[in-house]
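Sorry, explain these tokens?

___
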Amino acid sequence: MPRVIAVANQKGGVGKTTTAVNLAASLAVAERRVLLIDLDPQGNASSAFGVDKPALRDTVYNVLVDSTPMEACIVGTELTGLDLAPATTDLAGAEVELVSAVAREHRLSRALASLTTRYDYIIIDCPPSLGLLTLNALTAASSVLIPLQCEFYALEGMSHLLATTELIRTHLNRSLGIEGIVLTMYDRRNKLSYQVETEVLDYFRDLVFTTRIPRNVRLSESPSFGKPAVLYDVTAPGTVAYLELATELIQRSQAPSSHHASAGGAA
């Protein structure tokens, strides 16, 4: 069974899509078979791989709304072992169209059922909200990975996200756990980064990944070239950090004792 990891945070601008894209790419570099699902109507994860969106016949929208098989929308990428399920702005309509649908929260999990032997990891890039799309992601996922920007406001939404995750665990997906918290846009010279890091470690302890993702211009530049950072500049500090994060994630997955925690325990 693949590990299905939802990269989620209802606050925008925390490095969520950057983390989803570059973690998926780094796992592929580590010779894992990876599917990245773009579940954000902005389609930024798709743009990060230079996808020609107008030329797409099927997208994640068709999977959720029309019950199109997931295999029909999957496209390959430049990286061996990494596939993408792309999204366009049409996906914004799914939030409305699924409201009256039967088993609306389980559309994505049912679509993934046919991929059980094809991938080692499925990474889902969630939209910056806790709406029906994110609900589908968390219902389908085995765990949620939370990128957390090293700023005060980023801390304020954590309790809401964890409470929502616990509700989903109770009512929709009993196996959902917290994969971990990744500190992003980290600057060792910034006192605030250190303060946020200290506070997060005090509350969440070993749920926090050791790897820190630094502020890095090359990470910001790579999407404009339609490439993940590892194909744009493999020596950049941000690229190296995501390669280290992938290694840490794999090691956690292989550890005898699980690092996962319920949302309630994390809160």
User: Anything to note?
Assistant: The mean pLDDT is 91. The longest helix spans residues 237-254. The radius of gyration is 17 Å. DSSP finds 13 helices and eight strands in the chain.
